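mind reviewing this stuff:

——
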Amino acid sequence: MKRFVLLAAAMAALGGCSKSAPHSNGESTQAQSQVLAAGSIAAAGDLELGRRIYNFRCYYCHGYSGNAKTLAATLLNPKPVDFTSVLPNSLSRERMLQSIQSGRSGTAMMGFASVLQPNEIAAVTDFVRQEFMIAKAENTHYHTEANGWFNHERYAAAFPFATGKLALDTPWEQLTPQQADGKRLFMTSCVSCHDRARVNDEGMHWESRPVSYPRNQFSPGDYPPPPKTEKPVDAMSSATPYHLHDQAPKLEGLTESQLRGEVLFQQNCAFCHAADGTARNWIGSFMEPHPRDLTKSPVMDSMTRTRLRTVIREGLTGTSMPAWKSILSEQQVEDVIAYVARAFHPLATEP
């Protein structure tokens, strides 16, 4: 099962798409009117404000140069917009304002109405249009002395791997001595930020083992069968409050559909919603807005099968809940719904 869509959405939420909170439709409409009313011609100061906002919140998916050549972009479907290949008259300012304001349904683009002020949304919109769509500029170079990178040229041998000109998994015997030195330098000095760079063999997009928590190759839902019903996460299981929520509920008498849904949920949805459905695991606790607690959220009291089906298929605008309609089949969606209704919260009767 392809888990990379959900992972990428989670990464986006942990990166630039952070510090937001849900708001009512009335607030959204009012804020959108304010954004659309903002000046259409940005001053130089506004463009620099837009640059600062973009470099903090947007680069992770769209790239520092607006060309969407980022690791996150390779994991997203659909991919983020490459602004350098878009002409201003083919993507209107008004649509960009609305996208930043309210997000784009069916994509990882969330709404920033509760994160940015109307003038900030206007500033980052105008910056993108001027810097990438019109000027085709490179924006901000990261490896500068001002950013603490003195004599960055000393890493020149590693540049082909960092820029993707050479695939990181190129066999050693096919590399020249200089390229081999560059690969070693990349692996020891650059890989922590550039990650794997470009590879010929994509392999698995995601494995469920968390990067920073917990240890010892633990994976969510990784517990032995009865009679041993609990497995300590690590040598200091009391050191974290999160691992308790990475234990899937022990259920008996599940139907075939519910059993299939259990596998799908634990392999895909538990990354954000936690294995126990509370969203109180490590990732869920840090995402903003938080993933829905499927066990006792007030929304779940009125959640119907039809509404849940729509949320799973289409995603949830303004959040990091992606659309699964191109990943899960109709039957798989129904299986997940059946498991959620059995394991976490009964669904309301259809009106």
